[in-house]
Amino acid sequence: MLKLALSLLLAISPVCASAAPAHALTQQDVVRELIGAPVYSSDGREVGRVMDITLDEDQAFRALLMKASRSLGFGERTVRIPGAAFIALRGAVVLDLPSESMDVLVEHDAEGSVLDER
User: Fold this and answer.
1) What is the rounded (10 degree) CA torsion for 24, 84, 80, 87?
2) Superfamily grouping for domain 2-9+32-104
3) What percent of the chain has pLDDT over 90?
């Protein structure tokens, strides 16, 4: 399923083979580009929007903070996804999780702290 989602995203993303980039993108550039981008589940469904991506000291993705719909579609919540559970593409992020698993993710605040869900 993840391969199908990646194939779909690569097919719809704008690619210009003749235009060479002026400089190589840094990880910070990639993060800035992805803020507000759609987040897709491994089964190809849009499940949220990128709020922030944190990097570790080696500039690898540490975590993704995303806005996702609450159960039954009432409001939004912020969830944190570990760096190993997503792939960042130009203009989108694909999770290594099916859309059905979104309801079990723990809600976090904008700084990444777990919210009390009592």
Assistant:
1) 50
2) PRC-barrel domain (2.30.30.240)
3) 44
Please give the pLDDT value at position 84: 92
pLDDT digits (tens, 9 = 90+) for 24-59: 888 899 899 999 999 999 999 999 999 999 999 999
Checking phi first, is residue 63 left (phi over 0); if not, alpha (psi -120 to 50) or beta? beta
What single-letter DSSP state applies at residue 114? B
CA dihedral 34→24→97→8, nearest 10 degrees, is 90
Measured distance CA(17)–CA(56) in Å, rounded: 31
Distance CA 1, CA 5 (A): 6
Residue 28 parent element (H or E): helix 27-34
DSSP E strands: which ranges in 8-95? Answer: 38-40, 46-55, 61-69, 76-82, 86-89, 92-95
> Tokens at residue 12, please?
């719809």
pTM equals: 0.71
d(CA 48, CA 115): 18
